[in-house]
Amino acid sequence: MAVSTIVTLLLLLLHLASSSATGIIGVNYGRIADNLPNPTKVVQLLKSNGINRIKLYDTDSTVLKAFAGSNIAVTVALPNNLLSAAASNQSFTDNWVQSNILPYHPETLIDAIAVGNEVFVDPNNTTDFLVPAMKNVYDSLQKNKIDINVSSPVALSALATSYPPSSGSFKPELVEPVMKPMLSFLKKTGSVLMVNAYPFFAYGANTDTISLDYALLRENKGVPDPKSGIVYKTLLEAQLDAVYAAMDALQFPDVKMVVSETGWPSKGDSNEPGAGEDNAAQYNGNLVRRVLTGGGTPLRPNDPLVVYLFALFNEDQKTGPTSERNYGLFYPNEQKVYNVPLSKETLANLPSAVSNGSKSQVAVAPSTVGQTWCVANGKVGEEKLQAALDYACGEGGADCRPIQSGDTCYDPNTLEAHASYAFNSYYQKQARGSGSCDFGGAAYVVSQPPRFGSCKFPTSN
Q1: CB 396 within 8 A of CB 404
Q2: HSE-CB for 221 with a 13 A CA cutoff
Q3: Is residue 272 flagged as an active site residue?
Q4: Which one from 118, 237, 277, 315 is the annotated catalytic residue?
Q5: What is the pTM of this model?
Q6: Number of C-beta neighbours around residue 6 at 10 A
Q7: Out of 100, 231, 429, 455, which could bridge 59 as a Cys pair, Cβ 3.0 to 4.6 Å?
């Protein structure tokens, strides 16, 4: 065996031993309502549902005090209307940190500050203030020796091109003034890009070209990216990879991403296609399963997904269409709007549907309940793919008999198809354990059955 192959296999083994591919689920805690439970009850609600990360839209003292000692990580926000002052005056951010962070942290685990929210679409035109405000907030934290990430949620509308995902690019008017400086700041400080991504909106605007299955993370034939060759099985992953491609185009491939908002409304107006309880249950249920079973997007398979669902409660005082008041996972009385898993523990025990009076609430699409597969990442190149395949079929102990010449899964006779079968066999034998579908970046997890000719991929279920 060549020395280079031995080295590659050793690296693969090391990576498999150290990799943690489990994603993270958090929830946005909005409070534009007059009927919500008090923050102390909210903390108990979160704990009882296994939620240990929340994101706020302000720094309300009553809320932050309630989370003290809870071990729930909290993202707080500096609102858009304070950006101008924060950008122009360091003493303003010094005072803001002293008033809104120091009294609570670290008893309340504030782990990030969102400076503004979807600033590029703010009607008050606050874009020019964003990066200076972020820098001043960060500098004020450093003065007090506080290590908290500073970022800002960006809407997908910041993209000029999102399809195909590999051609993703930011709007030209944003690139030099704000995106490059912001990404440079995030890289320098080790923070992440926060992105608000809603397949619901994309589906509603393109029902003629986007299938509901694709938007809801259900089984579907997928949408190919003609440039990269990747076949996307979920709209959300395609959206996120478009952002990654846009960052790559600006030479920031190492900045990580957090999905700071995503969700699906349980009610909507007649002109809001797809809004409804069953669809909301399936989107959020399938998404939670996708995140918690590990793996990143096709372009970033080694970066586990970190996703904040929107939102904790239905908020009765929000304006706009009916959907705006019906994104909640819970009613204000703390009852679930529909039954979806929110943690690994509930995920393991949740049935595909639960009865609620005369109706059935679909928690997770039946075709994907409990099932995930491991497939090859064709973008890593043939040499790395072959080395990973050799390991899987050799030391890894995968059952590679079906991909031998003349057997059931020999066709299609391609390296990617054979590697996918071998990787999945290894993954299932390892009980789909964390890190068992990675192979040094040569594989990633999918929640729909792989399709390579007539070959059927096994599952441990």
Answers
A1: no
A2: 4
A3: no
A4: 118
A5: 0.75
A6: 11
A7: 100
- pLDDT band for position 81 (cuts 50, 70, 90): very high
Question: Measured between alpha carbons, how far is 436 from 244 in angstroms, rounded to an integer?
Answer: 24
Q: Which of 219, 261, 277, 315 is catalytic?
A: 261
Longest dimension (CA), the chain: 74
Core vs surface per residue 227-242: b (16+ CB within 10 A) or e: ebebbbbbbbbbbbbb
Total length of the chain: 461
Residue 381's pLDDT band (cuts 50, 70, 90)? confident
CA 166 to each of CA 37, 41, 384, 460: distance values in angstroms, whole numbers, following the listed order: 44, 44, 21, 33
Active site (annotated) includes residue 261: yes
Amino acid 257 reads M
* The token pair that represents 20 in the structure block: 């943690």
The H-assigned helical ranges of 149-276 are: 172-174, 180-189, 199-205, 212-215, 235-249
Placement of tokens 């700041």 in the chain: 185
Task: List the structure tokens of 113.
Answer: 């500050």
Structure tokens at 109: 């685990």
Angle between helices 90-100 and 130-143 (to 10 degrees): 60
The reported pLDDT for the residue numbered 21 is 54
Q: Is the pLDDT of residue 131 over 90?
A: yes
* Residue 156 neighbours by CB under 8 Å, 6+ apart: 162, 195, 196, 197, 198, 239, 242, 243
